[in-house]
Amino acid sequence: MDGSFNHPANILELGKGFLTGSISKDAKFDKSDFRSIVPRFTPEALDANQFLVDLLKEVANQKKATAAQIALSWILAQKPWIVPIPGTTKLSRLEENVAAADIELTQDELKSIDAALAQIPVSGDRYPEELEKRTGL
To answer: b or e along 58-92 (b: 16 or more beta carbons within 10 Å of the residue's beta carbon)?
Structure first.
């Protein structure tokens, strides 16, 4: 798999709540939380990948949206056959996610995001090694 953020699978896999901006490098995950075993959710990886949340928040502020909505909107703008599958247990988050489909990123905004994302590699593997092998990637 491509190691840069500009690959749609990387931005999706980085999500898992991180793109909301509510998870910091000091986050502690309960053993029952899948993220407790995901290498991208170590304090070092969270700190290294924080730039993505900052970038998305900057665009979100300009669009009067959330960082998560901008991430979803960016995914939707990639290819017609790439479909984000956001998960939530809250109606308010479902409504927020659905509203992302109405956000249109300009070509300049897409280019700006792509250029920034292409510069920096993702820190931390998507899954622990034994789970990654199961993906076939």
So the answer is: ebbeebebbbbbbbbbbbbbbeeeeebebeeeeee
The answer to whether the predicted template modeling score (pTM) of the entire model surpasses 0.90 is no
What the chain holds in terms of domains, given with CATH numbers, is 8-135 (3.20.20.100)
DSSP string, the chain: ---BTTSHHHHHHH-TTGGGT---TT----TTSGGGG-GGGSHHHHHHHHHHHHHHHHHHHHHTS-HHHHHHHHHHTT-TT-------S-HHHHHHHHHGGG----HHHHHHHHHHHHHSBPPS-SS-HHHHHHHT-
User: pLDDT by residue (tens digit) across 16-64?
Assistant: 778 777 788 888 889 998 888 888 889 998 898 888 888 889 999 999 9
CA distance 31 to 80: 37
pLDDT tens digits, one per residue of 97-125: 999 999 999 999 999 888 888 877 778 77
